[in-house]
Design a protein that fits this description.
With 315 residues, the chain is an alpha/beta fold. It folds into two domains: 2-96 and 288-306, NAD(P)-binding Rossmann-like Domain (Rossmann fold, 3-Layer(aba) Sandwich); 98-279, NAD(P)-binding Rossmann-like Domain (Rossmann fold, 3-Layer(aba) Sandwich). The chain is 30% helix and 15% strand. The strands form two sheets. The protein has a seven-stranded parallel sheet with strand order 8-7-6-9-10-11-12, sandwiched between helices. It has a five-stranded parallel sheet with strand order 2-1-3-4-5. The protein is elongated. It starts with a strand and ends in a 9-residue tail after the last helix. 37% of the residues are buried.
């Protein structure tokens, strides 16, 4: 069986991939540009990929293709309709990065809520040493136990974030398509109006695209902190940037972008130097343990497929 890994560099260089060799003849590419896709998928029976786009323009050239394995939960880069029509199985991996993403989410929220970057710079710049005062209490920060934390999306990640928020003493509001009894579920506008912290954990679809937009930003409290670890286009990036510039919101944490990597013309470029913003390079999912778990799950998906199973099948 011929297996092609199209963008192994997106998984890091510290993982054990030898287990794939037990499944067949493996060809590994660091990255694959869109113009190289047709050539690299032509003979493959199994494709393993993260962000490479597979669609009706290139998939017809993969005459032997039986299975596409995504090293991610999202699969919007694969034409699912085409695969279904042409009997190509698609598998993703679910839950492998929950702890990793939750960890970064909480780190961003804690940092922004305590103005950690400002205090860090106060000391590192030697202003603290020169001040002659034993402490510094500005910018002012507040206890999270007095805050309302809005969680948008209650999947594996959102649910764990909500649990931690509740343990911190926060009032938790949740926005979920199907309400649950465990949390107070409200509509998105109510969540935006009432929350001091908003963290985004929802998939990107037509309903969630630019869910956080200019109109909803105007509803929010001026002390609100927004953290997006979902998908870049869940927020209107220009509107959120303006909200930071104009002091309409208190803080912003971003790990995902509408175009990745962040482009030179991204509105976020204007606020990179702000103390109340944190930007990370789509790494929330990428703890070493999570990445190895991802690879192991892909191997399990392939083995199950070969045995006639449907493990993690999208189609």
């Amino acid at each position: 069986m011929k297996i092609s890994v199209l963008d192994v560099d997106t998984l890091g260089d510290d993982l054990n991939l030898k287990v794939l060799e037990s499944l067949g003849e493996v060809t590994v590419y660091p990255l694959t540009l869109q113009e190289d896709v047709i050539e690299r998928i032509a003979d493959a029976e199994v494709l393993i990929l993260n962000k490479v786009k597979l669609n009706k323009d290139n998939l017809p050239y993969a005459k032997n293709l039986k299975l596409i394995c995504l090293t991610a939960t999202g699969y919007d880069n694969v034409d699912i309709k085409y695969c279904k029509e042409h009997n190509i199985a698609v598998c993703n991996v679910v839950g492998y990065s929950t702890d990793s993403v939750v960890q970064l989410t909480i780190a961003m929220v804690f940092s922004l809520c305590t103005n950690l970057m400002s205090f860090n710079q106060f000391v590192k710049s030697n202003v603290y040493t020169q001040s002659g005062i034993f402490n510094c209490l500005k910018p002012v920060f507040h206890e999270m136990s007095q805050m309302t934390w809005g969680v948008v999306g209650l999947g594996n990640i959102g649910n764990k974030v909500a649990n931690i928020a509740r343990e911190m003493g926060c009032k938790v509001l949740a926005y979920k398509r199907t309400p649950v009894d465990e949390y107070e579920c409200v509509d998105i506008d109510t969540l935006c109006r009432q929350s001091d912290i908003i963290t985004l954990h929802t998939p990107l679809n037509e309903e969630t695209r630019e869910l956080i937009n200019a109109d909803r930003l105007k509803m929010m409290k001026k002390n609100v902190i927004i953290v997006n670890v979902a998908r870049g286009a869940v927020v209107d990036e220009e509107a959120v940037t303006k909200a930071v510039e104009e002091g309409q919101i208190a803080g912003l944490g971003v790990d995902v972008y509408s175009t990745e990597p962040m482009q030179k013309d991204s509105p976020y470029q204007r606020i990179l130097g702000y103390d109340n913003t944190i930007f990370t390079p789509h790494m929330a999912w990428g703890a070493q343990e999570a990445r190895q778990r991802c690879v192991d799950e892909v191997v399990a998906n392939i083995k199950d497929f070969l045995n006639g199973g449907n493990k993690n099948r999208v189609v």
